[in-house]
Specification:
8 strands; 4 domains; three-stranded mixed β-sheet; 52% helix; Rossmann fold; binds magnesium ion; GMP Synthetase, Chain A, domain 3; five-stranded parallel β-sheet; binds adenosine-5'-diphosphate
Length: 469
């Protein structure tokens, strides 16, 4: 160890190594939130946001961490974790009595119409959709944290640090599905836990009814029987004063007695409108996990899973086209599939690329400009950092020759232009030059995997550009 090494520089160096070894999404999720705290006789202490985080790092990245620490601190180097105390500690010491709303009740003494005297526990219908399970919730970088936290919660409701578990994300990205999956998984475990799923709208309506019927206490009591309460789309509770007050009370009661809360929202808790800070701060007690838009591979996996469910088999150009064009909403992805099936049986025609394009037009406003040779040339020139005019010129400089050949290859593969037409776009070269270029690119891809990756990347970029703008 050198004199001027401190926890910041050591961790900084570790991060550089780690960054090279994990993908950028994982890096962002698991390593950026870490704070180095101190460096003490060969041991680096890092602070992680919660216990789950720690467990995840230990499970998935232990060897990488070990390797980087030893690289920085020598063979004796050690890593220690400090887990950031979260709201749960606060909860234990804090008295909740002063925060009871008017809906509050003495739970020992109230009659509850939902409970039949003599029967200890009512059977509560969980209101879950049995089709929303973990098995058919496809995993990808976009949902890994939320999915695994959901799984952890389902295994040990109320017994993890993720209470509440807040799942947020844009519309159609799987919040409702994941929330149901947790509930279904709890039921599957056969522990006899009372699970209840309720949408925020329904919850609000129930409260309005109970106020009308002077039955707010019964309402609150009913909710206190629940072991796992799932409230969907809590953003709709904003500005509904009475509802929020009662919700706050139920939340506190359940949380205090170690019951699990799962909430979904279309925005992160801090951005929820029309909610008091005291409520928002409670949402932060547990874990807030977001669902992001799935990447292309995940969209393909989801689409294929849906096809399997429906017993469908579509050609790969069709599935790829769908996934290139529908990016930000999984519900739409399913919608396209349903429309395709309907259109094909109505019109008695097979599902092919033409039909798919037509159907997708209803989903995305502007569809596919065609891929042009000019566009390919620009993109490649930009990527190789050479002026685009050089691609049609005579220069024999290695990097320019390669860019030129690659452009021809991509034009051949991604457009339906003839060899002759492509040759013309490159300073009037003839078709045999185009063939020769394609072959050269092929050969190079066989021997140079970095180049091969680059080609794959460019192809993807070009296809993705289809529905931009
Ligand atoms: P949200 O509640 O976020 O608006 P939903 O949970 O209703 O979204 O999801 C929309 C549709 O997409 C549902 O039919 C759901 O089954 C499907 N879906 C979302 N995410 C996934 C996934 N990871 N794997 C499979 N299907 C998914
Ligand atoms: Mg939903």
């Amino acid at each position: 160890m050198t004199i001027d090494q401190n926890h910041l520089t050591v961790w900084g160096n570790c991060l550089q190594t780690i960054r090279k070894n994990v993908n950028s999404q994982s890096f962002k999720t698991w390593f950026e939130p870490i704070n180095p705290v101190k460096l003490d006789s060969g041991s680096l202490t890092i602070q992680v946001p919660n216990k789950f985080f720690y467990e995840w790092l230990e499970e998935h990245y232990v060897s990488l961490l070990k390797m980087t620490i030893q690289q920085e601190l020598g063979a004796e180097g050690r890593l220690e974790y400090q887990i950031l105390l979260n709201g749960n500690t606060e909860k234990v010491t804090k008295k909740e009595d002063d925060e009871r709303g008017p809906g509050s009740v003495d739970t020992n003494n109230i009659k509850n119409p939902f409970i039949i005297p003599g029967i200890k526990k009512v059977k509560i219908s969980p209101q879950l959709n049995p089709n929303y399970t973990f098995e058919n919730f496809i995993e990808g970088d976009c949902n890994r944290l939320a999915r695994s936290a959901g799984m952890a919660v389902a295994k040990k409701p109320g017994g993890t640090a993720f209470n509440p578990l807040v799942i947020y994300g844009d519309v159609g990205l799987g919040k409702t599905h994941l929330a149901h999956a947790v509930g279904n998984e709890v039921l599957k475990s056969g522990t006899n836990k009372a699970v209840l799923y309720v949408s925020s709208e329904k919850f609000t309506n129930q409260i309005i009814q109970s106020i009308k019927n002077y039955a707010v206490n019964d309402f609150v009591n009913f909710y206190q029987l629940i072991d796992v309460l799932i409230v969907d789309d809590i953003q709709f509770l904003g500005n509904k004063e009475k509802t929020l007050e009662i919700f706050f009370h139920i939340f506190n009661q359940l949380h205090q007695s170690g019951k699990q809360l799962i909430l979904t929202s279309d925005k992160p808790p801090k951005d929820l409108q029309g909610m008091e800070d005291r409520l928002i701060s409670r949402f932060k007690w547990g874990l807030t996990a977001d669902l992001q838009a799935p990447d292309f591979e995940t969209r393909m996996a989801i689409l294929e899973a849906k096809m399997n469910q429906e017993g469908l088999d579509l050609p790969s150009d069709v599935t790829e086209f769908i996934c290139y064009n529908i990016k930000n909403n999984i519900r739409e992805l399913e919608g396209v599939l349903v429309s395709l099936v309907a259109q094909s049986s109505l019109n008695r025609r097979d599902i092919d690329l033409d039909l798919t394009k037509k159907v997708i037009q209803n989903f995305v406003r502007q569809i596919s400009k065609e891929i042009t040779v000019d566009y390919i040339k620009e993109l490649v020139a930009d990527n190789f950092d050479v002026p685009v005019e050089k691609l049609q010129g005579k220069t024999r400089k290695r990097s320019i020759v390669l860019a030129r050949q690659l452009s021809m290859y991509l034009a051949k593969n991604l457009t339906n232009k003839s060899l002759k037409a492509i040759g013309e776009k490159f300073g009037g070269r003839d078709h045999s030059t185009v063939i020769y270029s394609c072959k050269s690119v092929h050969d190079l891809m066989d021997t140079d995997i970095i180049f091969k990756d680059k080609v794959a990347d460019l192809k993807k970029k070009i296809k993705l550009s289809l529905n931009e703008k």
